[in-house]
Amino acid sequence: METIHEHSQDELLQLSLNHYNTPMKKLILLCSLSFCLSCQTDSKNEVLVLGMVHDKHLTEPSYSTDVLRAMIRAIDPDVILAEIPSDRFEDAMQSYEETGVVNDSRIAQFPEYVDVIIPLTQEMDFELIPTSAWTEEMAENRMATMRSIRDDPNREYDWQLYGMARFKSDSIKAASDREFDPYWINSPAYDRAANVALKIYNDLFNEELGAGGWDNINQAHYANITKELDARANQGKRILITYGAGHKGWFLNELKQRDDIQLISLHKAMGMSN
User: Fold this and answer.
1) What DSSP element (H or E) covers 44?
2) Residue 108's pLDDT is what?
3) Euclidean distance between the first and final Cα of the chain, in Å?
């Protein structure tokens, strides 16, 4: 006797139609299948990658912590996948709950978390998930390797090329007259400007920097993000990913390959037209 799992989906559909052998029964079956497929499409999670500017949130009025706080309230996420290392998350949250202060040197570098997102957990009903793959050792090794390259006379050309790429990238951002406008930062134009420097940085140094190289660390971050997206697939949730703005383009290129999510723009998440 044949078992059901030995058939393809098309074969199963034909078997079902043969079983429901009257026109009315076939119509009911087809309508039911169509409804189920529609429900599966409607249950896709909405995903927004929101670029952060770290310490600039404290100095740039157009993308201040107050602006970011208002934006997250308006976006109203069910889940935030954050650029916070998992090995520091529990202690950071415990210190905040006990003292109102995040006592962690790494997370304290990011005002978007210590001043905005972690405090918002007290008033909003979202799940905050740490997904950063960074470690303290990785950060120290990266800094030491970059200093060594900078000071090596044999790498002078590489260092100058990297510097010119950063200058060009910064110049494009400044020429936009919207350098710290959150809507420009969260646009394809910003990603193209940032990639001018990030591509050179990656091409020159990714292998030498090991786990802290640009492609390497993004792959590690994204593996953690993928794990959380997979665990929440087709739950009809709004998922916000918050990382430094430079990571955004890299993540979006990967996320576009998924067919179980709906990527949304900041304008749409804020209920605005583009």
Assistant:
1) none
2) 86
3) 57
